[in-house]
Amino acid sequence: MADLASVKEFADGLAADGTPIDLLINNAGVMTPPSRMTTVDGFELQFGSNFLGPFALTVRLLPLLLAAPNPRVATMSSGTASYGRIHFDDLQALRRYRPNLSYAQSKLADLMLAQHLAAIGHQRGWNLISTAAHPGFTRTNLQTAGASLGRERPKRMLLNSLNILPSQDVEHGTEPLLYAATSPEALPGGYYGPGGRFGLVGPTTTARIPRRARDAATAARLWAEAEHLTGVTLPVRVS
């Protein structure tokens, strides 16, 4: 996801095989490197890996997805999307890099990707369901792996060690994304996450979509910017 040439190579290989794709899950990502890092293509690492890479892969695979009888794209967002903002004047955090806010921007962008893809599918009459999910606070190495990039020793996460916030194991944390990817009850543009305390733990439920993620004009602008940055655009003949 941090190398657009790799994304293209992978997608081209699937296209050459020609087998329709029933389900695409966009889940790869990196969280809060302590200093600004970049992808192979020079994008800020979180924006590039979490959003631009999945965007490019999704658009490149659309012909194979739409060749399937009931295709679905499920994209992993985060609860941090609720305070994320799309900084069109500094998408790559060149002027000021703040790890958590750059992560929140990338995860808001993921949610807007899912929303806008659902809108495009509706406009074009595609039999495609685009959904999104967030895992709440799930105990994985995500919180430490990204935060340890560039450090000699892994970073110790204070929240994990002190158990300040409710958290859950991976088995339960995967449920919202699995629901978004497979449930017959999941709707186009639907957003799903834990329904327990603070939206961090518990059984899957419909999650509240942040106001900024519901801004259709901003989502369309972000999509256009992603096309410009990646050089990947909607195929003309996709229907």
Key structural traits:
single chain, 239 residues, alpha/beta, 8 helices
Describe the structure.
There is one protein chain. With 239 residues, the chain is α/β, with parallel strands linked by helices. The protein is 41% helix and 9% strand. The chain is built from eight helices and five strands, in the order H-E-H-E-H-E-H-H-H-H-E-E-H. It has helices at residues 4-17, 45-66, 99-124, 142-145, 158-162, 170-173, 175-182, 216-230, and strands at 23-26, 72-76, 129-133, 191-194, 204-206. It has a five-stranded mixed beta sheet with strand order 1-2-3-4-5, sandwiched between helices. Helix 2 packs parallel to helix 3. The longest helix is centred in the middle third of the chain and has 26 residues, at 99-124. The protein is globular. The two termini are 26 Å apart. The mean pLDDT is 93.
Topology:
Elements: H1 4-17, E1 23-26, H2 45-66, E2 72-76, H3 99-124, E3 129-133, H4 142-145, H5 158-162, H6 170-173, H7 175-182, E4 191-194, E5 204-206, H8 216-230
Parallel strand pairs: 1-2, 2-3, 3-4
Antiparallel strand pairs: 4-5
Helix pairs in contact: 1-2, 2-3, 2-8, 3-8
Entry summary:
The chain is of the alpha/beta class.
